[in-house]
Design goal:
This protein is mainly α and about 190 residues long. The chain has 7 helices and no strands. The N and C termini lie far apart (about 80 Å).
Length: about 190
């Protein structure tokens, strides 16, 4: 029986990267324009700010370049990433059901028996260890860093929402003042 896969963020938080420069936050959107606006607001603008801060403190800015590379890669892979794919597996299911129990055990092709939770955890741990070259020994340190990055992430989000609310309030106030001025002028 298949299990429900874990939320990607839960796995990412359980096995975070020590080399992460920001808290991982994954949102699935079905609109490419919304995705691009989000990338600009939550990737490029913070990258520019942090690169400027790095430059001022004598460091070497790298985040904007990194995000440009990711942006270019996403543009290249756009067709595959932003297309919903449907596969017909009727023949595979038929084959799995027609196999005798010994062959079913030897050639496990029925994905209903797959533990998706275990699969995604193993995949994430493999990416962490073999692609990012991070030792399982630094997992606790990575979790502590992830916790700190989460609070920075929350603070930045609150700052964005505060600015958005302030801007909305200011614009509303100006519109009300303009309407009141027009009404005063009409009464005069």
């Amino acid at each position: 029986m298949a299990t429900t896969p874990l939320n990607s963020i839960e796995i990412t938080n359980e096995y975070p990267l020590k080399s992460a420069v920001w808290y991982p936050h994954l949102k699935f959107v079905d609109n490419l324009t919304v995705f691009r606006i989000g990338a600009i607001l939550f990737h490029f603008l913070p990258a520019i700010f942090l690169d400027l801060l790095t430059l001022v403190t004598g460091g070497r800015p790298i985040l904007l370049k990194l995000h440009r590379n990711v942006w270019n890669s996403l543009n290249t892979l756009e067709k595959f990433i932003f297309t919903e794919w449907h596969y017909d597996n009727k023949l595979g299911i038929k084959l799995a059901k027609s196999m005798d129990p010994v062959d079913q055990q030897t050639f496990c092709i029925d994905i209903e028996t797959l533990s998706w939770e275990e699969y995604f955890k193993n995949m994430h741990m493999g990416v962490r260890e073999y692609l990012n070259k991070e030792s399982p020994k630094n997992l606790e340190a990575a979790r502590k860093k992830d916790y700190i990055l989460m609070w920075f992430h929350v603070a930045i989000q609150l700052g964005y929402y505060y600015k958005l609310c302030s801007f909305t309030f200011l614009m509303s106030k100006r519109m009300v003042e303009q309407i009141q001025e027009q009404q005063q002028q009409q009464l005069s």
